[in-house]
Specification:
The protein is globular. The longest helix has 14 residues. Helix content is 30%, strand content 28%. By secondary structure, it is of the alpha+beta class. It has 13 helices and 21 strands. Strands 1, 10, 11, 12, 13, 14, 15, 17, 18 and 20 form a 10-stranded antiparallel beta sheet that branches. It has a 4-stranded parallel beta sheet with strand order 4-3-2-5, with helices on both faces. Strands 6-9-7-8 form a 4-stranded antiparallel beta sheet, with helices on both faces.
């Protein structure tokens, strides 16, 4: 399905809220390159966006503060027969939008052929920087205000409340601020249990359910020992089934691509253990999520939204203004049988999305994440494998090498491997996953 967004939020015109689009129907043939901002290497970039740029004939300049890690990742990808574009990897302090703009400007001045045709990132941490840089150079991109609203979890709550899209009890703690010194947290009506999380956190890291004021105090101390400068958010716990909505927009049209049902670890942590693709984005929840995204100004490029189902209401937990990760985006591209990554890149080139993406609807997938249950050294685990039987394809990829030693993180860094099971029959998929897990073992020595 798709939704048009004729109205703006916060009194801004819709064009400014949903994203900046280039004039004219298409920018095919525009000379220049794709400036891609990244921190650490990810499967989404290595196996998704870079091959998409190659298929589009688009040279890429990758700006990163970790150039050596990217060179190693892409050397491995190429050695395995993976596709890569014409690629230049350049060091840049990508967390600072001023450095990003200066680096791109200097590069274009020194090498006119490398002037930017698009500026893009799939990193949670770099959406505002990429949006500001795209705006500076007059290129299509996300509205930086929408990128900030979605990244800053306290601002997300304030924005949804201000537009009456949804209201959730929430309090923000400055670095070093004691919960007992916060007027809302010192009041007797705090709706415990509450969720404590970093204001700009990702991957459920340091996200924890707290039962009362005493536990809140203790968990704050634990997190601040690791993140002394972090702002923290305490918010009402949303109980109910967890689902996601994956969207793709061009600033005018917003497609609801797919939805997943998500199972998470038992409290107090919130680690995704498995995801199953729903047959179709469910109503009325999809409509409610789209309304809230419009209120936030989200509607350009890819977006991954997590929400809780409470009756007919969809209560947003967080909005990640980028493509879903942990290999789910790679699976979606195959399962929907659409050029998903090319579509995302093209929106940043200013090209409109088709009114009908032509996505398949009969595919099913289960993503199963094998998790460490203790800290220690991984001594035994299955190797990467791909198999197909009874209409089910199993693709297992290790995420931790044998011999690696790690503590227990309480985040997706505890993943030992990921199993991608795809087909058209959910029952057979579930049976195949159960058989794979029973036939293999993962051993962690203390």
């Amino acid at each position: 399905m798709n939704e048009n967004d004729p109205d703006g939020a916060f009194g801004l015109p819709a064009r400014a809220v949903a994203g900046r689009t280039a004039p004219g129907p298409s920018t095919r043939g525009r000379r220049g390159n794709l400036q891609l901002l990244a921190l650490n290497p990810t499967d989404s970039v290595t196996e998704g966006f870079l091959p998409a740029a190659a298929r589009l004939g688009l040279p890429v300049t990758l700006l990163t503060d970790q150039p050596d890690a990217h060179r190693r990742a892409y050397d491995r990808h190429a050695a395995a027969g993976g596709e890569l574009p014409e690629l230049d990897i350049a060091h840049c302090d990508v967390r600072d939008f001023r450095e990003v703009i200066g680096r791109i400007s200097a590069q274009a001045s020194d090498h006119p052929a490398s002037r930017p045709a698009a500026i893009f990132t799939n990193s949670d941490h770099l959406q505002v920087q990429a949006a500001l840089a795209a705006d500076y150079f007059g290129l299509p991109g996300k509205d930086w205000r929408a990128a900030l609203r979605t990244k800053n979890k306290a601002e997300l709550r304030r924005s949804l409340a201000a537009t009456r899209a949804d209201t959730l009890w929430c309090a923000e703690l400055a670095p070093g601020q004691d919960p007992s010194d916060h007027p809302r947290l010192a009041a007797p009506d705090v709706p415990y249990p509450c969720v404590l999380k970093p204001r700009e956190g990702v991957a459920s890291e340091d996200v924890v359910l707290v039962a009362d004021a005493r536990e809140l105090e203790g968990r704050c101390r634990e997190i601040r020992a690791r993140r002394p400068e972090a702002h923290l958010v305490v918010e009402e716990f949303l109980d109910g089934p967890l689902q996601t909505l994956e969207t793709l927009g061009d600033g005018r049209t917003l497609h609801a691509l797919a939805a997943f049902r998500t199972e998470i670890s038992p409290p107090p942590h919130f680690i995704e253990e498995r995801l199953e693709l729903l047959p179709a984005p469910p109503e009325p929840h999809t409509g409610h999520v789209l309304e809230q995204l419009r209120a936030l100004g989200v509607g350009f490029g890819a977006c991954h939204t997590e929400y809780v189902v409470q009756g007919e209401r969809a209560r947003i937990i967080e909005v990640n203004y980028r493509a879903i990760g942990d290999q789910c985006d790679l699976v979606l591209a195959d399962l929907l049988d659409i050029p998903l990554f090319e579509h995302i890149v093209r929106t940043h080139l200013g090209e409109p999305l088709p009114a009908d993406l032509g996505a398949r609807t009969d595919g099913r997938v289960r993503m199963e994440y094998v998790m460490a249950d203790r800290g220690g050294r991984l001594t035994d685990a299955p190797a990467a494998s791909v198999s197909e039987r009874d209409g089910v394809r199993l693709d297992y990829r290790p995420l931790r090498a044998i011999g690696e030693e790690h503590p227990l993180y309480g985040t997706n860094r505890d993943f030992l491997g990921v199993l991608r099971a795809t087909g058209t029959d959910q029952r057979r998929i579930d049976q195949a996953v159960a058989g794979f897990l029973a036939a293999n073992r993962w051993v962690i020595a203390p």
